[in-house]
Write a structure and sequence with these properties.
Blueprint lengths: L3 E12 L2 E13 L4 E5 L6 H8 L7 E6 L2 E2 L5 H11 E5 L10 H11 L4 H14 L15 H12 L6 E5 L7 H18 L2 E5 L3 H4 L4 E6 L2 E7 L3
Parallel strand pairs: 3-8, 3-9, 6-7, 7-8
Antiparallel strand pairs: 1-2, 1-4, 4-5, 9-10
């Protein structure tokens, strides 16, 4: 059974008197532990699909299932719980809080889940060590390089040990030399830890680490192909 399953998913938005159909009957299955790259031109529905895969939004029609849970049937508080525990987000712009140290940025998601201070501190330090930043725990984002900030963002995404890592253009603000270790880390999270990694990207080099590349066009899956892993 797929870990993530979209069947006939439609998503519509109303802008004034205009109805925008961002997704049009999309079908997609993603299995646990897979790396899947979502590609496509601007306006193809990538961002909308990302929001549904991350339980940030619900379909207008169709069925979206995450780990056997139908998003349409969940109350908002249950969606919040699902996002907090099962999905880790990594963004192109890092979205780190500038006034907090790397350690505190990684601890933040655990605060919302009620994790004890001692456990938060231990786990954040362990995660920063895991992503190669054990000597940067007291540094603030403006004291870190772009690659280091993205590593902090990945550690933060792992804070509540989610099963899904949803990465939106994770190397978009990094040069090739800096981006390659980030992609290697995401690949390792799938291979070693069994995380399901979804990359939303325009970058063919990022997509090459995937088991599958799913290309969207006009709100539908236009094609699927094997990645380079």
């Amino acid at each position: 059974m797929p870990f993530l399953s979209m069947k006939g998913v439609t998503k519509e938005y109303t802008l004034g008197k205009t109805i925008v159909r961002a997704l049009r009957g999309l079908d997609l299955d993603i299995h646990s532990g897979e790396i899947v790259a979502i590609m496509g031109p601007s306006g193809s529905g990538k961002s909308t699909l990302m929001h549904i895969l991350g339980a940030l939004d619900r379909p207008t029609d169709g069925t979206a299932m995450i780990d056997g849970q139908d998003l349409q049937q969940l109350k908002e508080r249950h969606l919040v719980t699902l996002r907090g525990k099962q999905v880790g987000f990594v963004f192109q712009t890092f979205n780190l809080i500038q006034t907090l140290t790397a350690q505190r940025n990684v601890e933040l998601p655990m605060i919302f889940q009620g994790t004890s201070p001692g456990e938060r501190h231990r786990r954040a330090a362990s995660l920063l060590e895991k992503v190669g930043l054990g000597d940067r725990v007291r540094h603030r984002p403006n004291e870190l390089s772009g690659g280091e900030r993205q590593r902090v963002a990945i550690a933060r995404a792992l804070a509540n040990d989610p099963e899904i890592i949803l990465a939106d253009e994770p190397t978009g603000n990094l040069d090739t030399e800096t981006g390659e270790p980030i992609l290697a880390l995401l690949k390792e999270l799938s291979a070693r830890d069994g995380k399901t990694v979804i990359l939303v990207t325009h970058d063919p080099e990022a997509a090459a680490i995937a088991d599958r590349i799913v290309t969207l066009r006009d709100g539908c899956v236009a094609s699927e192909s094997g990645g380079g892993r």
